[in-house]
Amino acid sequence: MPFGYASPEQIMRDKADYARKGIARGRSVVVLQYVDGILFVAPNPSRALHKISEIYDRIGFAAVGRYNEFEELRLGGIRYADINGYTYDRSDVTGRGLANLYASNLGRIFTESIKSLEVEVVVAEVGETKDGDAIYRLTFDGSVFDEHGFAAMGGQAEAVATRLKERYRESMSLADALEVALTALTEPGGERPPVAQLEVAVLDRNREHRKFLRLTGARLERLLAQTSTPAATPPLAAPSSSGDTPPPTGPEGDVDDGSSPL
To answer: Torsion angle, CA of 40/64/108/80, rounded to 10 degrees?
Structure first.
C-alpha cells in the first residue's frame, strides 16, 4: 500500500465531515409556508451580506455556510433563470429546474474537488395556490429534499426543525408564521435576535409580477408587534465621533470578508 493512501470511502467521509462542520458554524435559516405564500427568516448581523435573495419572479433563495460560496451559486441561478426565461418563456423557469441545476453542480464539486462547498441551500417557489408551492433543500453533496410545509438548515438545524414541527400548522397568517419561525430559531430560555439583526422576506402569491418582498424597518416592526412575543429592540448606539459608519460585522463581531460562515 503506498504511503499516504486513503480509500475513496474515507475521502468522501472526510469531505462530508468537513462540510458539515462548516455549515454548523453558521446561523440557522428557516423557510416555511403561510396562507399567502412562503416566509424566509434568518438571524443575520450583516446588513450588506444577504442570506435570503430573489432568483426570479416567484422563486426565492436562502443559504447558510460560506458566503462567497453560496453567492456564486445564487448568481449562477440568476443567469440560468434569465437565459431560460428569455430564450423560452418566463413560465419555463421553475424551482424544480433550478434545484436540479444546483444539485448537479454541488454533486460534481463534492465528487471531483478536493474541498466540498460548505453550503446548504433552499430553493422555494410560490404557486398560484398553496398546493403549487414548493420548497427544495439541497445539501453540500448535491442531495435534494422536497420539503413539505417548512425547512431548517445550518446551525442547530435538527433542534430548530424539531421546534418547527411542534408549532407549525397549515394556513397560518404571516404574523403567526413569523412567530413560529422566531420561536424555532431561539433556544429555550434564550433571547430572540434584535430587529436590526433579522433578515426576513416573503414570496407573496398575491403580489403582481414579482412575488419576492424583503421585510425591513417599520414594516417588519409592525409585523413583529402582532406576534405574541416581539423580538428584542437593540439599544441605541452612541454616535461615532468620526461620523463614519462601521463596516458590517460577521457572526463573531469581526469584519466580515465574505469567507466566514453566515
So the answer is: 40
